[in-house]
Amino acid sequence: DIQMTQSPSTLSASVGDRVTITCRASQSSFAWLAWYQQKPGKAPKLLIYKASTLENGVPSRFSGSGSGTEFTLTISSLQPDDFATYYCQQYYLYPLTFGGGTKVEIK
Amino acid sequence: EVQLVESGGGLVQPGGSLRLSCAVSGFTFSNYWMTWVRQAPGKGLEWVADVSQDGRTVYYVESVKGRFTISRDNTKNSLFLQMDSLRVEDTAVYYCGRDSGSYRYFDFWGQGTLVTVSS
Asked: What's chain A's Rg over C-alpha atoms?
């Protein structure tokens, strides 16, 4: 199984900050990686797929990069609506696996 | 508008069974792989099972193999998860999701249904 490790697990930031979340895979998942945003009590929302492709309707302040075993999600200027938990997911191999999540909190 | 609506969750005793349903609309159901993902209270996301467009190919996470069965009815635009021999650790919100085209990431999700396994 491909294990996905996110860091940090919690991040405190202010509106306007640049935020970077890292996701590491235990073996290469090439570019088959997606990022999701989840707010409390809600379903996850797809942000990015194929490591760096922005889903339709997602603000351009979100971006993704990386390939192989190391990936990043960057929010260029944090907005109030962005305080949430973020998950990465590899879809190169079954079983499909998610990272443990990164909670972005208000500083 | 794409919609996925789960139902069938509830309280069940350990060893019991439950069948979840997911009714979909707003897209051609038979063209897409579909998935179930769960989230234990206060925990992260865990993929559970995937089913191909025609229902013939399925995949499961190891922890539910032999106990859960994913299936679909393309005539009724519905996805199912039959859960048998339930364990306390199966307690979670269960989400159905649409796999995006040829790839196994999920572009649309339902609102989730809570399954509680407890005596």
From this structure: 13
Whether residues B105 and A45 touch (CB distance < 8 A) is answered with no
Q: How near does any CA of chain B get to the CA of A101, in Å? A: 6
Asked if the Cβ–Cβ distance from B109 to A43 is below 8 Å, we say yes
Q: Which chain A residues have a beta carbon less than 8 Å from that of B111? A: 42-43
Cα–Cα dist A8/B27, whole Å? 37
CA neighbor of B81 nearest in space, from B94, B92, B91: B94
pLDDT in tens, B2-49: 999 999 999 999 999 999 999 999 999 999 999 999 999 999 999 999
Q: How far away is chain B from the Cα of A57, in angstroms, using its nearest Cα?
A: 12
Can you spell out the DSSP letters for A25-38?
A: ESS--TT-EEEEEE
Kindly give the confidence (pLDDT) of every residue in chain A, 107 residues in length, as a single tens digit, with 9 standing for 90 and above.
Answer: 999 999 999 999 999 999 999 999 999 889 999 999 999 999 999 999 999 999 999 999 999 999 999 999 999 999 999 999 999 999 999 999 999 999 999 88
Using CA atoms, how far apart are residues A13 and A27, in angstroms rounded to an integer? 30
* Cα B97–chain centre separation: 8
Which residue on chain A is closest to B102 by alpha carbon?
A91
Do B104 and A99 lie within an 8 Å CB cutoff? no
